[in-house]
Amino acid sequence: MAETPGVVRITDVAALAGVSPSTVSKALNDTGSLRPATRARVREAAERLGFVPDAQARSLSARRSFTVGLLSTDSAGRFSLPVVLGAENALVGGQISALLATARHDPVREQHHVRSLVARRVDGIIVTGRTTDPRRPIQVPMPVVYAYSPSQDPQDASVVPDDTAGMAAVGRHLLSLGRTRVAYVGGRADQAASTLRHAALAATLAERGVTLVGEPLFGEWSERWGRLAVDLVLGDHSPGEPLPVDAIAFASDQLARGGCDRLRDRGVRVPQDVAVTGYDDWDVMALASRPPLTTVDPQLDRLGQRAAELLLAAIDGRPAHGTELSPPRLVVRGSTAGDT
Amino acid sequence: MAETPGVVRITDVAALAGVSPSTVSKALNDTGSLRPATRARVREAAERLGFVPDAQARSLSARRSFTVGLLSTDSAGRFSLPVVLGAENALVGGQISALLATARHDPVREQHHVRSLVARRVDGIIVTGRTTDPRRPIQVPMPVVYAYSPSQDPQDASVVPDDTAGMAAVGRHLLSLGRTRVAYVGGRADQAASTLRHAALAATLAERGVTLVGEPLFGEWSERWGRLAVDLVLGDHSPGEPLPVDAIAFASDQLARGGCDRLRDRGVRVPQDVAVTGYDDWDVMALASRPPLTTVDPQLDRLGQRAAELLLAAIDGRPAHGTELSPPRLVVRGSTAGDT
């Protein structure tokens, strides 16, 4: 697949561009004072030849390591890894390498990783976590951006999924289908992903004078709880009787998938009798569900990309402060939209 | 959570150990000729103070970067990321940092990543992929170990999951339960994960004179295909009639989960009438399935750790050649074992 790389030397670039090797170095490292035309000519020559500068030499001349740390505390990686991959994707475009450091929710290990990244003289660090609950900031002498799990310090730069916008889109979608008897099923009651989404749904329905049916139900993030919650919502309803709801909004695709299974077990048709929505657009849940789930894609790769952009800006001396919301996307499928 | 790291200097370690800073450097970098007792005293002092050597300086003095590249070509990451995390885990123990490079099944991007890792002077590279099918080797001037996806070159070092052992364990388990009318459902027919597992199951049953029921069924890696395959196995069987099989071995948990759903839809009891097995021990599938799946855990984190060990040995001048099989583990749950 590959020829042995590294055969193109700085002198080759210099020869093609008609300049000295030190001018090549200045042009590619953005140092020294060169005419823009010269800089452009060198870059063109470097690109044409596929020149890859020696990263260690580049690092010593520019006083930057062109390396960023990606610190994850998520053992499963279900949410943080798409963020990490999105960030890595954005960094590659900027010729930045990504050092991966996974702490698996272990503070001692995290501390070790932080020290190691500092010792490596990374230019900055992106910190991701396994929930959207705020986390303690790390103390390091370089820029940090928090992605998915925001920092508890409002002066830090954080990028989090806009769950309020996501669940508001779900609420408007259900209203547009004429559904007005909506129940809400969350995951763990102590987590922002459960409570924020509940508040957003209730507020969106309230704008049209609609109140949620019953209290919000909180439990755990599992299909099992999704099935149980359906039993709580339906009570001792028998087939043929009027249903207490015409829609159930679940706070995750796992919950919604369990919910669909239980509704089918009990002879309730989705979406004809009860529309169902999930959250996460997790393909193996949302697409395998019967019917496939209408859900919210938090676009975690874009969130990771945005975190990388903010970090690169901070490294360039333009730090951001506060929490930025990353936009989600409603994905409509058969669990609300009829035959699919 | 953290004090600002990096405050302990090499002179602090030297003072505590009662030696010169250059002796500290030699002791920690394993260079020069020191008495073992001196080396031990320096290491103890460094550990006590939590001294983290400047990685760039360490790198220049030792002519090693103490950095390894983790090259993944898997866009979803379902299989390669556990491998990557296992490798990263093992590397951290050896004070090695991991540069993450994800190519998303794009050869041009992979080539860019390979050049970039070479330019970074990584000490070695672990290459992972999204299937167990052999892949083309990369050409680089440092050691490489292939994990999960083996190299097509038998002289390279590869670590792959031992699918033959995994499916043989399934076969023996089914025989131990007295099941002898076993059907096999694979994923894509052109992939080793489908064909190797079929061959292993057939061979294991044959040792006891048992033949698989019907031809192996191949399709796609989805729950949908798992459901369809059950219809193909059962044919126009009606509840109450004798069943053509007493077990179905699926080549993945997704397939098995779809299979369980369809068996239940058709009034067939799992495991009383038909035992079901999956493969992968993918928690969100295996545990959410009704009943939970007996399956094979390929222990991908251990596979990644082993790849890291082989790479570190190769960096130390002890390269391995050929393909090493990483052992799986049978996990017994309700889909074969009765009430769970």
TrEMBL record, chains A, B:
InterPro entries from the UniProt entry: HTH_LacI, LacI/GalR-like_sensor, Lambda_DNA-bd_dom_sf, Peripla_BP_I
Stretch forming the signal peptide: none
Record keywords, A-Z: DNA-binding, Transcription, Transcription regulation
SUPFAM superfamilies tied to this protein: lambda repressor-like DNA-binding domains, Periplasmic binding protein-like I
A matching Pfam family: LacI
Keyword match Transcription: yes
All residue ranges annotated as the HTH lacI-type domain in the record: 8-62
Molecular functions (GO terms): DNA-binding transcription factor activity; transcription cis-regulatory region binding
CDD domains: HTH_LacI (cd01392)
UniProt-listed Gene3D superfamilies: 3.40.50.2300, lambda repressor-like DNA-binding domains (1.10.260.40)
PANTHER family reported in the protein's UniProt record: ALANINE RACEMASE, LACI-RELATED TRANSCRIPTIONAL REPRESSOR
The protein, known as: Transcriptional regulator, LacI family
Organism for this UniProt entry: Krasilnikoviella flava
